[in-house]
Amino acid sequence: MALLRAVETSSRDFKQLVGEIAALMTYEATRDLPTIPIEVTTPLETMTGATLADKIALVPILRAGLGMVEAVVQLIPNARVGHIGLYRDHETLNPVSYYFKVPTPVAEHRFFLLDPMLATGGSAVEAAAELKRAGATDIALISLVAAPIGVETFTAAHPDVPVYVAALDRELNDNGYILPGLGDAGDRLFGTR
Ligand code: PRP
Ligand code: URA
């Protein structure tokens, strides 16, 4: 996390670190996923193994959530991937929705929303609401850096959605950036500023 935050970290290393931390968090976020027994024949005998009971869908919030997807897919190779396009209006900080495409049938999937930043919480609140409107009943949010207000706002709006964050930071500044934070995650991932 310290390397991820450091201003001198290159876009290349930033991408690598976002993936590494997302993968570590996946272990925690999937710890209690239900499994069903499957029969496995080893070279020596037959035994009962376990396989995931549910279809898994990963849904990055564009753009910065894209940086987490590949690392999580490495751990859940059968996961399907949806996309939710949202950006924050720079004046109001309210989320503006521009894209929504997720695996169907929606109600049959267990969704993991991916977004490295939970600042005001507006984007994640809207993304979870869009998933629910589409029929999702089982959602978790994985984020890397959160502000206290973002966690409060999100859990108030979606008390049924567990939130996993790697770091809970101090506060937001007047422009809605997390302090100490790591800056603009999308710009750092994609080198747009
Ligand atoms: C960033 C980030 C989150 C959002 C968090 O996206 O990736 O989606 O801000 O802020 P919030 O909790 O206050 O809503 P941004 O709006 O910068 O879009 P971009 O990644 O497409 O640039
Ligand atoms: N979005 C970011 O990318 N960084 C912040 O600090 C807040 C929102």
Low-confidence stretches: none
In CATH terms, what is the fold-level topology? Rossmann fold
Separation, N- and C-terminal Cα atoms: 21 Å
C-alpha-based Rg, rounded: 17 Å
Percent of residues in helices comes to 25-40%
Give the count of helical stretches: 6
The major sheet is characterized as: 8 strands, mixed
Strand content: 25-35%
Number of domains: 1
Bound ions, cofactors and other small molecules, one mention each:
1-O-pyrophosphono-5-O-phosphono-alpha-D-ribofuranose, uracil
Work out the number of β strands: 12
Q: What's the level 1 CATH class?
A: Alpha Beta
Q: So what's the overall shape? A: globular
Average pLDDT score: 97
Decide which structural class fits the backbone. Answer: alpha/beta
CATH architecture: 3-Layer(aba) Sandwich
Helix and strand string, N-terminal first?
A: HHEEEHEEEEEHEHEEEH
Can you characterise this structure?
The protein is an alpha/beta fold. The chain has one domain (2-34, 52-190): Rossmann fold. Helices cover 32% and strands 33% of the residues. The strands form three sheets. Strands 3, 4, 5, 6, 7, 8, 9 and 10 form an eight-stranded mixed sheet that branches. It starts with a helix and ends with a helix. The model has no long low-confidence stretch (mean pLDDT 97). Bound molecules: 1-O-pyrophosphono-5-O-phosphono-alpha-D-ribofuranose (PRP) and uracil (URA). The site of uracil (URA) has 10 residues, from helix 6. The site of 1-O-pyrophosphono-5-O-phosphono-alpha-D-ribofuranose (PRP) has 23 residues, from strand 3, strand 5, strand 8, helix 4 and helix 6.
